[in-house]
Amino acid sequence: MTETFTDWLRQRSEPDWTAVIGHPFTQALFTGQVPADSMRSYLVQDFQFVDDFLALLGSGIAKADRYSSRLAIAGSVGVVTSEENTYFRRAFDALGVGESDRVRPELDEATVAFRELMRDANERGSYAEVLTVLTVAEWSYLEWAVRAPDALPDDFVHSEWITLHNNPDFQAWVRWLRGELDRVGAELDERERARCLRLFQQATRCELDFFNAHWP
Ligand SMILES: Cc1ncc(CO)c(N)n1
User: Which entry of 1, 27, 103, 206 is 20 to 30 Å from 112 by CA?
Assistant: First the structure.
């Protein structure tokens, strides 16, 4: 038996996990058929998600048990604050998103739930628990994005959201996150492993609710 900790977590988060990575929102994204209103509301909410996600990456850097791990997480901070940040700016310009919706939009229920989960992990979670939430967010996004066909939609708002989550660097980052959680998970006792599982399941549910909130 060579089931890794992250495989174990994912398998026990079905059927939600599979519902996330094959969500109709992502299928429509592949053909550029997410209606502009849905794409706008999704990205406005996601920009707020990314703010808390960035804070959680900071928490991971602080809690990591070694320098090489801090470096790996810091590399991802670089992407979120550069490529991904400029994507949001350009997409908001293209979609006509006003200043207040960029800075302080009214938050959906799904965004609030995810925010609370991330803030809790940030403030009270162990390194393993922080990694668990980061892993769900990144691994699930890689898994839907790798399902994209070779021919991407013309509109960069759609196509770049796919390629941001399906490129060699992002694949390597997710591979690192899983390996790191497998490494740290091997040291956990049963109670701590169970806490990670509950968090993994809750975060997966949050991902599903997040897509559902922007899909009819
Ligand atoms: C809701 C959500 N989950 C995961 C990601 C990937 O970090 C994202 N951008 N948004």
Answer: 27
